Amino acid sequence: MAERDTIFSGKIKHTGIFDYKEFYRFCYTWLVDQGYLLTEKTYSEKIQPNGKEVEIEWEARRKISDYFRFVIKAKWRILGMTTVEVEENGKKLKMNKGQTEIKVDAVLEKDYEHRWENNAFTKFLRGLYDRYIIRGRIDYYEGRIFTEADEFIAQAKAFLAIEGMHT
Questions:
Q1: Residue 12 — left, alpha, or beta (φ > 0 → left; ψ -120 to 50 → alpha)?
Q2: What is the mean pLDDT of the chain?
Q3: How many C-beta neighbours within 10 Å does residue 79 have?
Q4: pLDDT (average), residues 51-77
Q5: Which pLDDT belongs to residue 119?
Q6: Cα→Cα distances 30→23, 27, 59, 115, 146, Å
Q7: DSSP assignment of 134-161, as one string?
Q8: pLDDT at residue 44, rounded to an integer
Q9: Which is nearest to 21 in space by CA: 64, 49, 56?
């Protein structure tokens, strides 16, 4: 089994006005532009008395080498989403209002192709390889995926902050 180390966990929280479709597109495009192959594992919408409830689960993967792969997981939860009209420069725009929360985890996968899984001896060798031979490379990749996940959250928060100015 591939070894998975969660390197980063963070959260985006926003309550107020935003453009849901544009925000979704922005987040999706940002990850794809970084070279990730994004899979939407879950998408559900439920109509509630106080508005729409949306749950989304993404898994974005990027191959770094035959041994390393970056994985960014994002779990969205939007509560009480309603459509509202806002006025900007004399024009009326349809936007969304609600509570948004996105939990983001960044994982460094090692030996994701299971090449060191044949027997107990090769698993032992992988442990030695990781601990002593490529320790510096592991540290480097952990720093890179941490930075990318942190930047994803910063970009998403900035998008929501700018969108919130429409009020």
A1: beta
A2: 91
A3: 16
A4: 96
A5: 81
A6: 10, 5, 14, 31, 16
A7: SHHHHHHHHHHHHHHHHHHHHHHHHHHH
A8: 97
A9: 56
> What percentage of residues in the chain have a pLDDT greater than 90?
71
Q: Which string of DSSP letters, residue by residue, matches 81-96?
A: EEEEEEEETTEEEEEE
- Give, for 17, the enclosing helix (H) or strand (E): strand 3-18
Q: State how beta strands 3-18 and 68-88 pair.
A: unpaired
| The CA-based dihedral angle spanning residues 128, 141, 1, 152, taken in that order and rounded to the nearest 10 degrees | 160
Sorted by sequence, the CB contacts under 8 Å of residue 73 that are 6+ apart come out as 57, 58, 59, 60, 104, 105, 106, 107
Distance (Å, whole) CA 57 – CA 6: 17
Alpha-carbon span 85 to 71, nearest angstrom: 37
pLDDT at 166: 53
Asked whether the predicted pLDDT for residue 69 surpasses 80, the reply is: yes
